[in-house]
């Protein structure tokens, strides 16, 4: 079962290295490259639709992509931003739908439009409601304390609160530096997820600190945009680009 496999991937000998994708083809390509699971990037999903990220306006696009990615032979986790609703029961229903399609996990964040954080009690109620509606779904509770100015001091309190609320994993994007990472690891018995940051700690270094999941976030999507522009401007394709037939095969599986 994909959901059980996804849980187990957070407790292996090595952390789970998770590529974040924005389309079925990008997901299929990551599976072909050997990744045991894939996630989505909300920025990639939103920008592809011509919409801003983290504004709660991509529910339809996110669900459409989830239905497609559920075809993949590996576990898939979906970034649902803050759940696309202020009502816990509606977010819980969304999670239950995703689970019924074969989706293995979700990311749920406490950041809200306008650069504010949801009150901890409200976010805990959201996490608890989602777990009640979809008990097997891996709920990765994300706190944006390190992405929003002035909130860093709340990080560990929120890590502990979301742990007690029933989350399966904790995600602290923007967390960097050994002291901060080790403190977050020590604050929860759940797997800690951090972003891979170019120029920051290596995968091996993060593993040694106790991190159990390393995500790419929007990096792969932004890299793909950059590569497309460079190719167009320079008028020559770098080696290794998939052929037309390669892509047709990926999406026809």
Automatic annotation (TrEMBL):
UniProtKB keywords: Lyase
Alphabetized GO MF terms: lyase activity
SUPFAM superfamilies associated with the record: Phosphoenolpyruvate/pyruvate domain
Regions crossing the membrane: none
Source species, domain of life: Bacteria
Keyword Metal-binding: no
PANTHER family assigned: CARBOXYPHOSPHONOENOLPYRUVATE PHOSPHONOMUTASE-LIKE PROTEIN (AFU_ORTHOLOGUE AFUA_5G07230), PHOSPHOENOLPYRUVATE CARBOXYLASE
Name of the protein in its database record: 2-methylisocitrate lyase-like PEP mutase family enzyme
Organism encoding this protein: Actinomadura viridis
